[in-house]
Amino acid sequence: MSTSQSEPVLELRIHGVNNTPPHEMLDLPPGDVELAFGDDLGSFWHPTPDAVDRGRIDRVHGETSRGVVDPDEPPRGRVPHGIHRETYSWGGMVRTAPPESGLGGIVLAVLARAAWTLLLPFSIANAAIWAWQLPSPTAGRRIRLGAAVVRTACLTLTLVLALSLASVAIDLFALQCFRGGQTVCAPLGDAGATFAAWKDERRVALFSLLPVLALVAVFLVARLSILRYNVAGRILGGAGTDHGERPLLAEPRFWLTRTETDRLATLHLAAGIATVALVTSFAFASDTTGVTPFLTGASVLVVVVCAALVATTDSTPYELTRADRRIPGALLAAAAVLYAAPAVVLGFHGDIRLEPRIMGQASDRILLVVVAAALLLIVVAWALPARERERRAWRGRGAAVFLTLGLAIELLLGSLLNVLAGDWLNGPAAANRLDQPYPDCSGEDCLPGEMTIGPFSAPFLGLTLLAIAVAAVVVGAMMIRPRDVGARAPHSASATDAASARAALTELLGREIAQKRALAARLHLAEPMVGALAVAFFAATVLAVALAAYPGLLGAVLPPGTAAAVATAFARWIDASLIVWVVIGLAVTAGLVLGGRRSSRPLALVWDLACFLPRAGHPFGAPCYAERAVPEVARRVRWWLDLPPVDRDGTPEPRSVILAAHSMGAVVAVAALYALRNDPAWASYRDRIALLTFGVQLRPFFGRFFPEVLGPGVIGAVPCGRPSPWARDPWARADLGSTASTVPGGFPASAWVSLWRLTDYLGFPARSIGSVGNDRDRYTEEIDLSGYVGVVDTHRWYSRTPAYHRALDELRQRLGAASGR
């Protein structure tokens, strides 16, 4: 047995969303850590033997190579006797991009970051299915309506992507750039001369391949990620022996979602291709109301895909029947035929009379129908909130909020794509000319004109910018509200350390501590802030659809003079907003091109929160890193506990594990414990596992956003109410009870200590805000004295505080007592 395995206790550290490197998690120089096990996605690291020897504290003298130390202020990276320390690095699962080596590597990295950006709204919408009321562990109910609404709404996002790509490829490139046998778009130059000589129908057939290929690429990414991430079946094995009532995290099927995600992905691809076929089929319409077999077939196929999603019997992953496996493949084959047939006819038949105006407006008209359907589904989700509203975010309307955010971001990306493409193809013409009427172009009399992006994108961008401004005012009012959370800070620590340097420094830095506490209290208001943004997005989308569908709406509801003034002001605002959005789009593009690995995905916090959940709602979201991280942590814990006992002076000492998890790492750790609870040897494991968390969002964020997954009945916490955005202390009265909820089958750890502090902008207590009967939460020092100068810490470096080392020692003793040592 190696020296690294000669200690009885494994302290396994798990980082959070910032993807802290292994050497920083171990608080050592890079050269003092080495790989123990793993690959580029997930890996386990531990200190080198030399680093451990240098950091050990002599049991008698309390000395290290650095000299005599204060046991309350241990040196960085010191590993106590009896503990083998490791860290699990899972950041490669959520922030990976191809290495930027050489021109080819840079191009691949840029494309990867652009792809992650396009997938962001899908991941957010996927969270909606977990925010709805899920099957209860006690009643075992299947919430079919919620699954049907959410999955169908998620499908509309895929259709929006297909229509946005089709609008650029077919309308802008295939039709508007080539009029009257000449190239109108100056940026294409001589490269467009070949296509200018083609007939419109042949260009439509060719360029319609672009959105289809993009959808296939997204589908393949989803399939490949399933192969690399969904490994629970190989690691966790069978269902185990934990029968009876249990939370979803303890259900083996929760992590075995490969077949269900594959089924959903196939259905989404079929609907996306059918939508492109629907757009292409408008080439055969003799007028705006013309209907052909192609149009009918594509429309029916999209409806059938929706019916297949509605027919899903549960809102969580389930065992697929034979019909469930065959239907998606058959629908995909039908979609391919419906697309290929009109494309082939357009490409090789010479007698088609294509009307560019009707053809160019097809994607815009279909987009309005799809967005209107999505809004209707969101209204249904809002009107049917889940039960126990006070315990749920947004009063049980989390599904509607997540769907709104996903739809709005997808529409923003699609509109920006159209604006940027139109502005580039427009050449020297200003971006604010993109919202002009569609060019009336037919036959040989067609004259060159400016690009247009249809009646929806420009008003939507203008209204969305206005909505964001209004939401910013509301959020700003929340932010400037004076905050004082000092009443929740324990005062006993100050009295104990009255004569210490920490107490003196606390008094000296009192102003900075108060400021960071106030800032953290403001940032803790994520729930009402996101709610305000979702309402603003929804209102902007509704108005944009109404104005695009009914151009004379203002004149119908307002007096003529007022309507004219409003229309003029709104037109100017749209012009200005288009310029703003073009600047934003260029900035985003530049960020994708120039960004490094840490910026490989936008909105890291939102991304990592959403990507914890399996893709049961939208299959094209980013891979669920928990499907691999959770089984890997469970396997590592099981491996350690199955090692032979350590011989201590002739007495065998059983192995034990302390999972030390930071921020999002705590979510991974809790899920891993529940996954391990199904192991046949669980009875021999439970009393040898303890949990140490710090800077966590389990109770107020995950517990309220996804109650059935990580609510109070799963983590054994006091139910948490919503924060008050206008109170001086938003969370002062958030407890909804005085006792913690009961965990079915018991929480899968013999002990749990959670560290928190008021200066942490992402950290909360894990059991309750109150202190009575709260044996889990421990307040942590807010000043880090381990460096040259003391600093007020926020979300990081809990492991450097005396509270961390006291908790580690306490859990170690409790594990020893539980195992009879």
UniProtKB/TrEMBL annotation:
Q: Which residues cross the membrane?
A: 103-132, 153-174, 204-226, 264-285, 291-310, 330-350, 366-386, 398-421, 460-480, 530-550, 570-594
Q: Where is this region: Disordered?
A: 62-82
Q: Which UniProt keywords apply?
A: Membrane, Transmembrane, Transmembrane helix
What is the official name of this protein in its record?
Integral membrane protein
